[in-house]
């Protein structure tokens, strides 16, 4: 059955979904990585496609910007479409010198300034983490492909334009980069016993004058896609 945000029918979506914030990046992946892609969703222009990659069924779909958006789409995929694993590919701003535009970050864990985790009423602070099997395989693939990468904690922030520059405090605790979605994705996966991983491309630096163009963000950051599809 369809949901308010997804017009797919049961069986239209593969067990593995590779997601991106930008639905046009999902369209790019469908056109450049999938064999015989078929669109299953266009509600709110949140494009989704299913095809095969090297003979294996896989879907790609956008999830929008921010924790509320990715939380809705990933929840529905896990709970209503029986998806087993979601691999998010996205961009991030690095918090340390020495990281370059185009480098990958494999998000082992995700800190957050969001209140999303409060819904679970846990007696403490929950630490959302990636599925280790997916993470270790992604690291192996980065090495095999000769791709520059780091592994570690990221910050899923509700704030894009941070007037207080609180990211400096996160950087001091070893957090590698800031993005806006992974904490909710990892929490949703944990809550229903499914798998999730985020692979990020550095698109900006918060400590050096480095930034990628909008076109590069949408079309040029293909290394994270290659690694993601290798995990299907």
TrEMBL record:
Protein name: Uridine phosphorylase
Record carries keyword Transferase: yes
Superkingdom, taxonomy of origin: Bacteria
Pfam families: PNP_UDP_1
Presence of the UniProt keyword Disulfide bond in the record: no
Domain Nucleoside phosphorylase span(s) in chain numbering: 16-228
GO molecular-function terms, A-Z: purine-nucleoside phosphorylase activity
Assigned protein family: Belongs to the PNP/UDP phosphorylase family.
Keywords in alphabetical order: Glycosyltransferase, Transferase
EC code(s) of this entry: 2.4.2.3
Species the sequence originates in: Hallella faecis
Catalytic reaction equation(s): uridine + phosphate = alpha-D-ribose 1-phosphate + uracil
Gene: deoD
CDD domains: PNP_EcPNPI-like
């Amino acid at each position: 059955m369809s949901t308010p945000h997804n017009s797919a029918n049961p069986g239209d979506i593969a067990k593995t979904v590779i997601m991106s914030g930008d639905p046009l990046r999902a369209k790019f992946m469908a056109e450049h990585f999938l064999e015989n892609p078929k669109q299953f969703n266009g509600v709110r222009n949140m494009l989704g496609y299913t095809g095969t990659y090297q003979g294996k069924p896989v879907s790609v779909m956008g999830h929008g910007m921010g924790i509320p958006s990715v939380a809705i789409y990933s929840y529905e995929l896990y709970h209503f479409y029986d998806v087993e694993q979601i691999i998010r590919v996205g961009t991030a701003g690095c918090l340390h010198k020495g990281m370059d535009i185009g480098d990958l970050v494999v998000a082992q864990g995700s800190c957050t300034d969001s209140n999303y985790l409060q819904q679970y009423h846990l007696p403490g602070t929950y630490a959302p983490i990636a599925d280790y099997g997916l993470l270790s395989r992604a690291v192996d693939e980065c090495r095999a492909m000769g791709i520059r990468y780091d592994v570690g904690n990221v910050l899923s922030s509700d704030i894009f334009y941070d007037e207080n520059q609180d990211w400096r405090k996160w950087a001091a605790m070893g957090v590698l980069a800031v993005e806006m979605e992974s904490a909710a994705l990892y929490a949703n996966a944990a809550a229903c016993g499914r798998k999730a991983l985020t692979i990020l491309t550095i698109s900006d630096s918060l400590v050096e004058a480095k930034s990628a163009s909008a076109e590069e963000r949408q079309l040029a950051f293909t290394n994270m896609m290659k690694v993601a599809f290798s995990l299907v």
